[in-house]
Design goal:
501 residues, alpha+beta, 49% helix, Helix Hairpins, rod-shaped
């Protein structure tokens, strides 16, 4: 039995569909409990107020007895009220007005004065006023008009009065004038006291409901975040071309999606490897007959014909080497590692400079970084931070691929633009390697078209090559999650290789 329950629990916990169903079910259940608790308390409270109304009607009968009594021998406790007759002290103030001072108020300093009209005598159009005073420790009651008692009789007016006091829930004392100097002192803790009110669990209920909804929302957002993370991983692999398996984690549906994507990546990787191996094999096999052709061309006596054969054979050999470089990049067998990109670029530039080619590397400039403000100074000034330190240019990449891409850009700049000026810049998000030539303005040149395989410009008609150099650079940039862009410069064209850090 325990194993079955555990299996059902695992089914709920490992299935996104079941998690959603469980969350919705628990949300509805908690909402129903909260709503039920609210309506149940309202029903109890309304019942409590109705009982107070009936007690007020009973109190009106007792007050009527005191109004018509000829002696003081009356009940002291009836219908939940403590009754006693008192004679307050009359105090004449400086303006000759008479005020009443009631004793034994126990700190009830807030006084409310009003009257109830008694229209029981048919010929009395103004009604008989019954003065009432209420003393409280916390507030003065707003009883200019008693709610619900506008057109009610005397008994109902007392009922609505007691109901109103009960609704305020306080430790109050009521004094009703039953004669010129006599007042009926009425205490009703059993009626309008807070201790007699039903327990109010609404706040705890809504706190529990709020916490529960927060937990359910967190669990639901966690499931959505897992889908977002899976989407980001798939998109990242699609951008970079790194066909690495996605680590499966989460509910069963996400595991199934991860497994399907991994299977697709495996098939795609096998397909790319087969295509790359096929091209590499063909290019490699073409190298042998090209070498034999070059040896046989050396036996030709006619120097003009021999020169033409050698040019064609060199062109074939160049095509073979370019295709091999392209397929090696497609196979993507080099593992990424973290290297100092500044040192890598410097070594490539030094290799070209050592053989006398006009290739230079510009010194890095200090980047301008905004300083944060403090309580002692504002943050409006710009502070200079030197980013030329090699430690600040660490980058996770495939160094041989980056070296090949940079070499291709420099070769094109030297071949078609006389010289190459390399610039290295960095931000917190990316590193840019720019190669600018001095071949004149090419504002109208379509460089984006040159990225396509075997595409060459008009100025390459008498130059060696087959049009795969920029294609390889672009593929290397994309495989790192970066891009290759071109923009016209004052003296030529600037090619920029952008890599994420």
């Amino acid at each position: 039995m325990n194993s079955k329950l555990f299996g059902k629990y695992m089914q709920f916990s490992t299935s996104l569909r079941m998690q959603i169903v469980l969350i919705l079910t628990l949300t509805l259940a908690v909402g129903a409990v909260a709503a039920g608790g609210w309506f149940k308390w309202n029903a109890k409270w309304e019942k409590h107020l109705s009982a107070a109304f009936q007690s007020g009607i009973s109190l009106s009968e007792v007050v009527d007895q005191y109004l018509n009594a000829s002696n003081m021998d009356m009940p002291s406790h009836t219908a939940g009220f403590d009754l006693s007759v008192v004679e307050p002290q009359q105090i004449t103030s400086a303006d000759n007005s008479v005020k009443l001072r009631f004793s034994n108020l126990d700190g009830r300093s807030f006084e409310t004065r009003f009257s109830i009209l008694d229209f029981r005598n048919p010929g009395d159009f103004e009604g008989n006023r019954i003065p009432i005073r209420i003393f409280s420790r916390k507030l003065t009651y707003s009883l200019g008009t008693i709610p619900g008692a506008e057109n009610a009789g005397l008994s109902a007016r007392f009922g609505y009065l007691v109901r109103t006091l009960t609704n305020y829930c306080g430790d109050t004392l009521m004094f009703v004038n039953i004669g010129e100097d006599r007042w009926l002192r009425i205490g009703g803790p059993e009626i309008w006291g807070c201790e007699s009110a039903p327990n109010d669990w609404r706040l705890l209920t809504f706190i529990f409901a709020g916490i529960s909804f927060g937990i359910f929302l967190t669990v639901g957002m966690n499931a959505v975040d897992r889908l977002d993370n899976l989407s980001d991983e798939i998109e990242g692999r699609a951008k970079t071309g790194r066909i690495a398996p996605i680590k499966p984690s989460g509910p069963r549906e996400i595991l199934a999606i991860s497994a399907a994507v991994n299977n697709y990546f495996d098939r795609e990787k096998d397909r790319l490897e087969q295509r790359a191996n096929l091209l590499s094999g063909i290019s490699h096999d073409l190298g042998t007959p090209a070498t034999r052709l070059k040896l046989r061309a050396a036996l030709i006596d006619d120097p003009t014909l021999r020169a033409k054969f050698e040019v064609d054979i060199d062109q074939i050999t160049s095509m073979i080497e370019s295709v091999l470089a392209y397929t090696r990049n497609e196979m993507n067998i080099e593992e990424p590692r973290r290297v100092s990109l500044h040192s890598l670029v410097q070594s490539v530039v030094d290799d070209y400079a050592d053989i006398g080619l006009p290739v230079t590397l510009a010194p890095m400039e200090a980047e301008s970084v905004g300083s944060t403000g403090t309580i002692f100074k504002s943050g409006s000034k710009r502070s200079k931070v030197n980013l030329s330190d090699k430690k600040r240019l660490l980058c996770s990449c495939r160094p041989n691929a980056i070296r090949r891409a940079l070499s291709n850009l420099i070769d094109n700049a030297v071949k078609y633009g006389k010289s190459a000026h390399v610039t290295l810049s960095a931000t917190s998000e990316c590193i840019r390697i720019s190669v600018q030539d001095t071949g004149g303005s090419n504002a109208d040149f379509d460089f984006e078209n040159m990225i396509e395989p075997f595409k060459r410009g008009d100025n390459a008609a008498h130059r060696t090559g087959i049009g795969l150099g920029l294609t390889i650079v672009s593929n290397i940039a994309l495989s790192h999650g970066g891009k290759l862009t071109f923009e016209p410069a004052a003296e030529g064209t600037c090619a920029t290789l952008t890599l994420p850090r």
